[in-house]
Amino acid sequence: MIPRAVTADELDQYLPVIAWHLGKFCENGQWEPQDLIDQIRDRQRQLRLIEGKCVLLTSVLTDRLSTVQVTHCVGVDYQEWLPLWPLIERWAKEIGAKRIEIVARPGWEWPMRQFGLTKTHVVLEKRL
Fold first, then answer.
1. DSSP H or E run through 85
2. With contact defined as beta carbons under 8 Å apart, do 37 and 22 qualify?
């Protein structure tokens, strides 16, 4: 089980697989699934997929630290895929990011502490 980076060019073939996840991301009304699809296509967001388990969206901010921001993550059986978090951090370092942050619901604070992320306001962050 490895997080697969789904490129903008591959997105259409994965839409049936991630439709439920996109719907969950949009429950609060901030976005519609098509908004997120368009942002992935425009390369404003990056999509990682652990098929059958998890979908994760990131954005690379244009701040001085090239922060990778995890904006959305939803899945099932998180105990199975959460140990793959270091692969996301490695990718962030490879693209030159000096910081990673997760915009998450409060319940993610506890499991993400094992990877050195700390709660600052309602954002979990780590310097890379």
1. helix 85-94
2. yes
Six-digit token pair at 68?
């990778």
Are the CB atoms for 67 and 102 separated by under 8 Å? no
Q: Which backbone phi and psi does 104 adopt, to 5 degrees?
A: -140, 165
Residue pair 91/113 in contact (Cβ under 8 Å)? The answer is no
DSSP assignment, residue 73? E
Compute the distance between CA of residue 78 and CA of residue 89 in angstroms, rounded to an integer: 17
Q: How far apart are CA 44 and CA 59, in angstroms?
A: 6
Backbone φ and ψ of 67, nearest 5° = -60, 130
Q: What is the pLDDT of residues 87-118, one digit of tens each?
A: 999 999 999 999 999 887 777 777 888 888 87
State how beta strands 99-103 and 68-75 pair.
parallel
Whether the predicted model's global pTM rises above the 0.90 cut: no
Given the structure tokens 């959460």, which residue do they identify? 82
CA angle 72, 74, 76 (to 5 degrees): 165
